[in-house]
Amino acid sequence: MVKPLPFEEPVVRLREKIEELKNITDDAHVDMGDEIKSLEDRLQKLESDVYGNMSAWDRVQVARHPERPTTLDYIDYLFEDFIELHGDRSYGDDAAIVGGVASFDGTPVTVIGHQRGKDTKENIRRNFGMPHPEGYRKALRLMKQAEKFGRPIICFIDTKGAYPGKAAEERGQSEAIARNLVEMAGLRIPVISVVIGEGGSGGALGLGVANHIHMLENSTYSVISPEGAASILWKDAALAQQAAEAMKITAADLKEMGIIDEVIPEVMGGAHRDAAAQANAIGEALRSSMEQLCPMDRNQVIEDRYRKFRDIGVYEEGEK
């Protein structure tokens, strides 16, 4: 049973009413087909109204849904022969970032992504998807390996941010992320990133310097969480909803500003409603990017990535 979010309550209540009438029909052999059909029509319109007019805060809640598909879920659906590789060859292995080699539609690729847990035990093991420096160094090791063998890189972004604890800082958290930004900018192979949940701060950017950046419709991508922004701006984390609206962190906002390349539509109610269907939509976006990027030579790939990031923030002034 998928736990409903607060803004979904009218939809959930109507679904329950329809299910109740269907049970009465089955148990009491009473024909309530007309009533059920009428309610199903109302449900279809209500779902369109609720999910078609979601606020930024609603999308933040969907992006954080505990049952939202993770990197490993999408790897299972999209790739064949995935072999996970471990360790940064310097300190250890970070379970908050997973990566390895796989096959996508018959093409060898390297897949890397943030990994959250689905329950308390796994979340503790995965550090709630917040990587340590060794996670980013593992990711970079796999990227350089991919460059050596000419494999395209596909990254899945889903983190609140890099782990801010003392141990991470002692082991060079900021340097590890900065190194990834520098090295990813110069990779001579195509890099495609997909924001599948939360894309938070430098923790997300460490996998985000890509030729193409896609976002699921209900994902977010920002320099700080709405709660963090509200705490800094207004000294009150309770104003997170207001901050979410002001920060322009949704896929539609970022597409309009030219920061991402494509918004991938989600299934009705969010990706957690049908992971397989959502994976298919992601797969189509990846195929389109691969078709555009793979024919480029190495210099063109670097130039394409350079131009993408140089163009972010460029604007034209209108007449006064």
UniProtKB/TrEMBL annotation:
Domain CoA carboxyltransferase C-terminal, chain residue ranges per copy: 38-292
InterPro entries membership: Acetyl_CoA_COase_a_su (IPR001095), ClpP/crotonase-like_dom_sf (IPR029045), COA_CT_C (IPR011763)
Pathway stated in the Swiss-Prot or TrEMBL entry: Lipid metabolism; malonyl-CoA biosynthesis; malonyl-CoA from acetyl-CoA: step 1/1
EC number: 2.1.3.15
Subcellular location as annotated: Cytoplasm
Example GO molecular function: acetyl-CoA carboxylase activity
Main location per the UniProt record: cytoplasm
Gene Ontology, cellular component aspect: acetyl-CoA carboxylase complex
Matches recorded under Gene3D superfamilies: 2-enoyl-CoA Hydratase, Chain A, domain 1
Coiled coil segments of this chain: none
Recorded family membership: Belongs to the AccA family.
HAMAP family according to UniProt: AcetylCoA_CT_alpha (MF_00823)
Protein name as annotated: Acetyl-coenzyme A carboxylase carboxyl transferase subunit alpha
Lineage: Bacteria, Bacillati, Bacillota, Bacilli, Bacillales
Chain's gene name: accA
